[in-house]
Design goal:
seven-stranded mixed beta sheet; four-stranded antiparallel beta sheet; 3 domains; Spore Coat Polysaccharide Biosynthesis Protein SpsA, Chain A; disordered C terminus; alpha+beta
Length: 354
């Protein structure tokens, strides 16, 4: 019985369950699932409040919820989308990991129904600068041996073109390090919004710290050149506003958001607000994990997209010439027709990560 379960949770846990709800409506499946969750969480002694922000664009809603979590001294934010269906155990199991960010794998709503968690397959060696690509059949690890010098190379999360989605054969492997994912069912420590800092961009002539992972290697040269052009803070603000921002990753999310200068969540020109947030978090030294033993279903255009549905979609995707399923089932479209290929950004695609 659910009320007989016990979990080893961190002290002083108080979770803000945060759900953006642009349409101001919920499906009956989601509503029933949420009631099941809160019923069990109460039995298990998990302290929580649920905050729903309706009739606001998703990045505005998430930014409001981040500020509410900070103002309310919540220990965690548990992002649960309004089309998410989870086992109530997802939250306590995530809390037990005691990590900065933990994501539950989930399928995207549209064909080809890929899992919305990604990691780079490219690794960069800090010793020689060589790039190494891991085998596609391997779940991208945190590090691997450099193909040139044999030193340890770190996963290059800056190289977004090398990202690949997790697949169902990457699941059931426990807690794994990843580079980003959707906020469909994601737990974050609120403290990272206030405390996580990366490196400052080096000034012209300053040596670059070899541990500085806050910026792509090529960007450091650009930063040094650009910062040498500014005579005043006002000039830098003009460049940031009209040409493009030169981010200072040593500033926390909260410091960036002060006065509305740079909200906690931002919608990029191409892509999604949650993947951009993950990238900014990685630049500030935040570690992101996926619990591959969990799975969050997705209320989609098929009734509810489950893990089994995703597995079937993967099988059909491997045979693009004959991707028509049995009569009455879903027709899988090629990536780009109805969805976005998350290993490479395509501006003419329409589907968001979530």
């Amino acid at each position: 019985m659910p009320d007989e379960k016990t979990y080893e949770l961190p002290d002083d846990v108080h979770v803000l369950v945060a759900t953006p709800n642009y349409t101001n409506l919920f499906s009956s499946e989601a509503h029933t699932n949420h009631i099941e969750c809160v019923s069990d969480w109460k039995k298990w002694g998990i302290k929580y409040n649920w905050m729903i922000v309706g009739r606001a664009f998703v990045h505005f809603a998430r930014s409001q919820q981040c500020q509410a979590a900070l103002d309310g001294n919540f220990s965690h934010i548990f992002w649960v989308d309004d089309d998410c269906m989870i086992d109530p155990e997802v939250l306590p199991k995530m809390l037990e990991h005691d990590k900065d960010v933990v994501i539950a794998p989930y399928p995207m709503r549209k064909s080809p129904f890929e899992i919305g968690i990604l990691s780079s397959q490219q690794f960069r060696c800090k010793s020689c600068g060589e790039h190494t690509i891991c085998d596609d059949e391997v779940t991208p690890p945190e590090t691997m041996e450099c193909s040139a010098c044999g030193e340890i190379a770190d996963r290059d999360f800056h190289e977004h073109a090398a990202y690949r989605n997790l697949r169902t054969d990457d699941l059931d492997k426990g807690l794994v390090s990843v580079d980003g994912g959707g906020t469909h069912a994601m737990l974050i420590k609120t403290s990272i919004l206030r405390e996580a800092r990366g490196f400052k961009p080096p000034n012209p002539g300053d040596p670059v710290d070899p541990e500085n992972d806050s910026y792509p290697p090529g960007a450091v040269d650009v930063f040094q050149k650009m910062h040498g052009l500014f005579d005043s803070v006002d000039e830098q603000h003009l460049i940031d506003h009209y040409i493009g921002e030169l981010p200072d990753q040593s500033r926390t999310f909260e410091e960036e958001a002060e006065g509305g200068a740079k909200p906690f969540f931002i919608m990029p020109k191409v892509g999604t607000e949650d993947m951009l947030w993950c990238y900014r978090a990685k630049c500030k030294g935040v570690e992101i994990y996926a619990d591959t033993d969990l799975f969050a279903n997705h209320i989609g255009f098929p009734p509810v997209i489950t893990r089994g549905f995703t597995e079937k979609a993967e099988i059909m995707k491997k045979d693009p010439e004959n991707n028509m399923m049995a009569p009455g089932q879903v027709v899988l479209q090629k990536v780009g027709d109805r969805g976005r290929n998350h290993t490479r950004i395509q501006a003419d695609s329409s589907t968001s990560l979530t």
